[in-house]
């Protein structure tokens, strides 16, 4: 029986493709879940702002910077630690609370330290 060389080549390509899919999927880390208390973080920021003698235009600019720092910090943390970040009320138990770490990152960004 004569074996067709194109059939053998096709089988080799198929085996290599399947192997590549398994290797890539085995290396992909499924994200875990973490919680971040955004409500308390925003309340703490508002309290700090209210204790300073700042005019309304500066409050608006600082609030915009805070919002950007908050979003950037959450995205950076999620990417660096392979986590999905949700509000604490969405998870009953078992998720790591990353509020302090993210707040620290926000504070650094607000001071311009990235």
Describe this structure in words.
With 114 residues, this protein is mainly alpha-helical. It has one domain (30-110): Protein Binding, DinI Protein, Chain A (2-Layer Sandwich), CATH 3.30.910. It has helices at residues 5-27, 38-50, 56-81, 99-110, and strands at residues 32-35, 83-86, 96-97. It has a 3-stranded parallel β-sheet with strand order 2-1-3. Helix 3 packs across helix 4 (99-110). The longest helix is centred in the middle third of the chain and has 26 residues, at 56-81.
Which key phrases capture this entry?
single chain, about 110 residues, mainly alpha, Protein Binding, DinI Protein, Chain A, three-stranded parallel sheet, 4 helices, 3 strands, elongated
Range of helix content: 55-70%
Give the strand content.
Answer: 5-15%
The CATH architecture is 2-Layer Sandwich
What strand order characterises the main sheet? 2-1-3
Short description:
The chain has helices at 5-27, 38-50, 56-81, 99-110, and strands at residues 32-35, 83-86, 96-97. The chain has 114 residues and is mainly alpha-helical.
Present the secondary structure layout.
Elements (H helix, E strand, L loop, with lengths): L4 H23 L4 E4 L2 H13 L5 H26 L1 E4 L9 E2 L1 H12 L4
Parallel strand pairs: 1-2, 1-3
Helix pairs in contact: 3-4
């Amino acid at each position: 029986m004569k074996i067709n060389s194109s059939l053998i080549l096709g089988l080799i390509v198929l085996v290599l493709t399947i192997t590549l899919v398994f290797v890539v999927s085995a290396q992909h880390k499924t994200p875990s879940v973490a919680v971040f208390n955004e409500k308390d973080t925003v309340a703490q920021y508002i309290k700090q702002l209210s204790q300073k003698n700042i005019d309304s235009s500066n409050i608006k600019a600082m609030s915009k910077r805070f919002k950007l720092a908050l979003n950037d910090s959450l995205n950076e943390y999620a990417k660096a630690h392979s986590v999905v970040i949700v509000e604490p009320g969405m998870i009953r138990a078992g998720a790591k609370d990353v509020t302090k770490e993210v707040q620290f990152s926000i504070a650094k960004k607000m001071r311009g330290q990235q």
